[in-house]
Each structure stands twice: as structure tokens, then as C-alpha cells.
């Protein structure tokens, strides 16, 4: 780091990108320009995160005095079957949404890449689901999956199948939430894949054609390997956001329980990790345990991100 | 000849599949229109209505009777535009510094920024709530605006943009003309990066407009909430009875977003991919 003893060289003022180091006074305006973010982060990021770690070793209802609890919150977390089942719910919903979504998005992107006409119209329409609020969309999907008057059941009835109490059964709830997520994110990811596809040099495709490769072979030999960085990006973002899903399940299922809007529906089948966090914190006023749950969620998300990263990386080395 | 024919029919098949995807994307919007133009009784009848009805205005009227729709929309507008303005100002200032200037601690501070990018929000929610309750921000829009006034994503994104968009020669020339840091920012940097600001601005506005989890717990006065929270209240209380009204609310809440998106779609869709493949 710079010290006050260093002589401020004259050139520092003239070359902005390569100025030698000197004292704080010379650069105060630069520090001032970046300070808002760091100050806000200190106040609403770093201090709260530190405090939440501290809190997770205590018992506190938010009003009375804090009581030291040692590791007992975490010990309870490990044995808390509700927390484990919320992990299970989250992962199942995430998988039900993410894999079809990535598949559909990739197919859509490949098709968009080869379609010449109306490309912008398609891109606009496919992106539309992603800009709409999750709350509004969840309300609409709630009516699509409604047992009494839902469109899904009307469709089933029309083709002579039995109706399903979508928002009343464990799998129905998960499928409904996953469908919503898939609908909202497929187009978004298709556009990201499309951007990735457009960076693949056309010589590669020409070489494949010269070698007599069919479209399927071309896809697996050229498109997919070239798309790996984009796939990694999409997978990591989907994991980080999907494992922290909250609004979809909360809005879809908030009517199903009288005592908590964070219940996650009948049998808590739609109670994701973050819903469980909100329930423990703001319904039960158990701030200490809520903090421990938040750290538990953080660990699960980190773990899954590492697994994702490894999977995609290893496939790349083969 | 045959191959041309083959290409054409393949093209038609391609567009047929793409149009199906397009209809699936658009269908929930259409469905919301259908539901918001029918009475609750009509909605509950079988077979389901597939064409718009004639009760839209009645639904709008009962929506306005049941919830302070415009009040909460004004709150959402206030929060989203304040956050957008502040984010554009603070993020572009910081991004300009990180993109074009050398100073002690630069690498460290930027590394820290990237680390912050990854910290999940739940970890901060409880202490934030407690802190804001202490200083009296809970229940007011300040609780939503101030913590969101600058963010790591925007600084990172703008920095990438500014590195290539602003030429060093321009900065050098302005310095020789005697321009100080703020003048360079205002007269050299900002005019060049206007498209980047448009992307970040629209992105921030839409994201803030759609925020739900934090407003849900931070806005403790049920009469003074943002649109998303008001919608959710409406769904929670009336969801099982007056679906036409709830759906009208959902539909009307989408309108401002669709307008913003229609204005900025080209920018958003064009720039979104750039960050991912770089």
C-alpha cells in the first residue's frame, strides 16, 4: 500500500490508467466516487451478515434480551426434519423446473439461430414471461391449476382423464410451481443460449458439413461443446436463484393455511428452504433459529453450486 | 430443386414449432385477460370460458373498492424510480473509477465487490429488519430504497461496458483541457455509455418493481404497501371468492412493466446475452 513518504510523481495526473501510487489526498475524489456502494454494503450487507452469524448462536424473539445458545441452534437444525424436508422440496422443485427449462431453452435457441425471419418478434415474445412480476404470474397460474375451475383440470376432463387436485397433493404442488418457473425462465435462457450460439465460428459448422456430419452429430460434436461456458453460466444462475425460490410457492399456496402464509400448502409440500426461513423468523419470531436456517440455506446453495461447477468442468476435460 | 423444397418445408416446420412456443409464452397473459373480463360465477363454470367476457369494468370497480390500487402503484413507482436513479448514479460513478483509474487498493476493493456479489440476501434480512425497526424505517418506503441504492452487479456490468466504450484518448484530451474528475464523468463518460445506462436502468426498474420478499416483511402497515404486496394481499383475502377481481389486479399491475419493456426491449434482449458469453 502507498505511504505518505512516497513522492507523488508528476505523471500520475496525466496517465489515468497507469498512475503510480501515492497518498490518499491525491485520490480522495476516486474513493469518494466509489464510497456509496461500500458504505451501503457495510451498513446493509457486512454488518447484518456478521450480526446474523452472531444471532445464530443465540436465542432471541426480537424483543426481549438475547440469550447465548452456543451451537444448539445448529444442532437443532441438523435434527430438524422440517428443515430437511424443505431442502428436499426445494431440490425436487428446482430439478423439475431446471432440466426441462435448460432443454427447452437450448432447443429454442438452436431453432431461433437457424430461423432467419421474425427473429426479433420471437425474441421479444419469448422474453416477455421473464419481465412480468412473479406475484401476478403466480396468481394467474393459481387459477390455471385450480382444482375447482382450473384450466388444467378442464383439459384433463375434456380428454376423459381424471381431475387432479393440483394444489392439494405433494406432487401436484411441486409440478405447479415448477411449471411456473419453467414458463418464466425458458425464454430468458433461450436468449442467453442464442447469444452463445452466435459466438460459435461458422467455419466449424462448414467443416462438419464437409465431413458429412448430420444435424444431430453436429449438435453433440460442435454446438454443445462450444456452448459449455454459456451452459455453465445458465446452470449456476438457475441453481443459485432456483434454490432460493420463495415468491412462487408463497403466492400460490398462501391461502391454504389459516395460521401461516409461509406454510407451503397441504403437507408443507411446497415449503421451500426460504419459505421455511420466513416462517421460522417472521411467524414464529424465532430470530436466532431463523439466522441458523439462513446459514444452512447458504451452505446448501454453495454446495450445489460447487457440484454444478464440477460436473460441467469435468465433462469439458473429456 | 428438391433440396430447395426440402429447405422450405423444414423452414415451415421450424416456424410452426417456434409459433407454438410463442403461444405458450403468451397464453397466461391471454388467460389473465379472459379471467379479468368475467364474473366469479362465470369463471367457476364448465366448460371454461376461452373468449373475453364483458365484466371488465365491474371487476376494475370492485378492485378499486377493495384495495388502494393507485396508492400502492404510486408507492411502487416511487420506490422503483428512486432506486433506479440512485443505482444509475452510484453504480456508474464507481464503474467509471474502476474502469479508467488507477489508485491504491483498487484491486482489493474490486475483488471485494465480486465477493459481495455472491452473498445471499437471506443472511442479511433479520439484522436488517431489526436495525430498520430501531431507526424507524420499517413500514416506510425508505426501507426499500436506501439498501438498494447501489449494487455490485451494476458496478461490475457498467465497468465491463465502460472499459471498451470510453477511449483513453478522450479522457486524456479532456484532462489537457483542464477538466476535473466530475467534469470527465459528466461530459466524457456519461454521453458515451448512454446505451449501457439504459440497459441497467430498465433492468433495475423492472427488478425493483417486481421485488416481493423484502417488501412483504418490511412494509408492516397493510395500508401502505407496494403493488406486489397489495396484489398478494388481494389474492390472500379474496383469492378463493372473487377471482375475476384478483385477476384484474394482476393484469393491471403488469401494464406499467409491459410499457417499460416495450420501450427498452431491444436494449434488454441485446445486452443480456453479452454479459453471459463474455
Automatic annotation (TrEMBL), chain A:
Residues 87-308 form the ABC transmembrane type-1 domain. Keywords: Cell membrane, Membrane, Transmembrane, Transmembrane helix, Transport. PROSITE patterns: ABC_TM1. One of its GO terms (biological process) is transmembrane transport. SUPFAM superfamilies: MetI-like (SSF161098). It is a multi-pass membrane protein. It is found in: Cell membrane. The keyword Disulfide bond does not apply. The chain crosses the membrane at residues 30-57, 91-112, 124-151, 171-195, 230-247, 287-309. One of its GO terms (cellular component) is plasma membrane. InterPro entries: ABC_transporter_permease (IPR051393), MetI-like (IPR000515), MetI-like_sf (IPR035906). Gene3D superfamilies: MetI-like. Belongs to the binding-protein-dependent transport system permease family. PANTHER family: ABC TRANSPORTER PERMEASE PROTEIN, INNER MEMBRANE ABC TRANSPORTER PERMEASE PROTEIN YCJO. This is Cytochrome C biogenesis protein.
Automatic annotation (TrEMBL), chain B:
GO terms for biological process: transmembrane transport. It comes from the Bacteria. Residues 73-264 form the ABC transmembrane type-1 domain. It is found in: Cell membrane. InterPro entries: MetI-like, MetI-like_sf. Keywords: Cell membrane, Membrane, Transmembrane, Transmembrane helix, Transport. GO terms for cellular component: plasma membrane. Pfam families: BPD_transp_1 (PF00528). This is Sugar ABC transporter permease.
Amino acid at each position: 500500500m502507498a505511504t505518505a513518504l512516497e513522492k507523488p510523481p508528476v505523471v500520475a495526473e496525466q496517465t489515468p490508467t497507469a498512475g503510480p501510487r501515492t497518498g490518499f489526498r491525491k485520490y480522495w475524489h476516486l474513493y469518494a466516487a466509489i464510497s456509496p456502494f461500500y458504505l451501503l454494503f457495510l451498513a446493509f450487507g457486512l454488518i447484518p451478515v456478521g450480526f446474523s452469524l452472531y444471532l445464530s448462536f443465540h436465542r432471541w424473539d426480537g424483543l426481549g434480551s438475547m440469550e447465548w445458545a452456543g451451537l444448539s441452534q445448529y444442532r437443532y437444525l441438523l435434527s430438524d426434519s422440517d428443515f430437511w424436508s424443505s431442502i428436499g422440496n426445494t431440490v425436487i422443485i428446482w430439478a423439475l423446473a431446471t432440466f426441462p427449462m435448460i432443454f427447452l431453452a437450448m432447443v429454442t435457441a438452436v431453432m431461433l439461430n437457424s430461423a432467419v425471419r421474425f427473429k426479433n418478434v420471437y425474441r421479444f415474445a419469448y422474453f416477455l414471461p421473464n419481465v412480468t412480476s412473479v406475484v401476478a404470474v403466480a396468481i394467474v397460474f393459481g387459477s390455471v391449476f385450480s382444482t375447482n375451475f382450473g384450466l388444467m383440470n378442464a383439459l384433463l376432463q375434456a380428454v376423459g382423464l381424471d381431475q387432479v387436485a393440483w394444489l392439494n397433493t405433494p406432487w401436484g404442488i411441486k409440478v405447479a410451481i415448477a411449471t411456473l418457473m419453467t414458463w418464466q425462465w425458458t425464454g430468458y435462457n433461450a436468449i442467453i443460449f442464442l447469444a452463445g450460439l452466435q459466438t460459435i465460428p461458422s467455419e466449424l459448422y462448414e467443416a462438419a458439413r464437409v465431413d458429412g456430419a448430420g444435424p444431430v452429430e453436429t449438435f453433440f460434436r460442435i454446438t454443445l461443446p462450444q456452448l459449455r461456458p454459456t451452459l455453465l453460466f445458465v446452470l449456476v444462475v438457475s441453481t443459485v436463484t432456483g434454490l432460493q425460490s420463495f415468491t412462487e410457492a408463497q403466492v400460490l399456496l398462501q391461502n391454504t393455511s389459516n395460521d401461516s402464509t409461509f406454510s407451503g400448502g397441504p403437507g408443507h409440500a411446497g415449503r421451500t428452504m426460504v419459505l421455511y426461513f420466513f416462517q421460522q423468523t417472521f411467524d414464529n419470531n424465532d430470530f436466532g433459529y431463523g439466522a441458523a436456517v439462513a446459514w444452512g440455506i447458504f451452505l446448501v446453495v454453495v454446495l450445489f453450486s460447487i457440484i454444478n461447477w464440477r460436473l460441467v468442468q469435468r465433462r469439458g476435460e473429456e | 430443386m428438391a433440396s430447395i423444397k426440402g429447405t422450405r418445408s423444414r423452414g415451415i416446420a421450424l416456424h410452426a414449432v417456434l409459433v407454438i412456443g410463442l403461444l405458450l409464452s403468451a397464453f397466461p397473459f391471454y388467460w389473465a385477460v379472459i379471467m379479468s373480463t368475467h364474473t366469479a360465477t362465470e369463471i367457476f363454470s364448465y366448460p371454461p370460458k376461452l373468449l373475453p367476457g364483458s365484466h371488465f369494468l365491474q371487476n376494475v370497480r370492485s378492485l378499486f373498492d377493495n384495495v388502494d390500487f393507485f396508492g400502492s402503484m404510486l408507492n411502487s413507482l416511487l420506490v422503483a424510480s428512486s432506486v433506479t436513479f440512485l443505482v444509475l448514479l452510484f453504480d456508474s460513478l464507481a464503474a467509471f473509477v474502476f474502469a479508467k483509474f488507477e489508485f491504491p487498493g483498487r484491486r482489493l476493493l474490486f475483488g471485494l465487490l465480486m465477493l459481495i456479489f455472491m452473498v445471499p440476501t437471506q443472511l442479511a434480512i433479520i439484522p436488517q429488519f431489526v436495525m430498520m425497526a430501531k431507526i424507524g424505517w420499517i413500514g416506510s418506503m425508505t426501507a426499500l430504497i436506501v439498501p438498494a441504492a447501489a449494487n455490485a452487479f451494476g458496478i461490475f456490468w457498467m465497468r465491463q461496458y465502460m472499459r471498451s466504450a470510453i477511449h483513453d484518448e478522450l479522457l486524456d484530451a479532456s484532462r489537457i483541457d483542464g477538466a476535473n474528475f466530475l467534469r470527465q464523468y459528466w461530459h466524457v463518460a456519461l454521453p458515451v455509455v448512454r446505451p449501457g445506462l439504459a440497459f441497467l436502468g430498465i433492468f433495475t426498474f423492472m427488478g425493483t418493481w417486481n421485488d416481493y420478499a423484502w417488501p412483504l416483511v418490511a412494509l408492516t402497515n397493510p395500508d401502505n404497501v407496494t403493488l406486489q404486496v397489495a396484489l398478494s394481499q388481494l389474492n390472500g383475502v379474496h383469492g378463493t371468492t372473487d377471482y375475476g377481481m384478483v385477476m384484474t389486479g394482476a393484469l393491471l399491475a403488469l401494464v406499467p412493466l409491459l410499457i417499460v419493456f416495450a420501450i427498452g426491449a431491444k436494449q434488454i434482449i441485446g445486452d443480456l446475452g453479452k454479459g453471459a458469453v463474455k
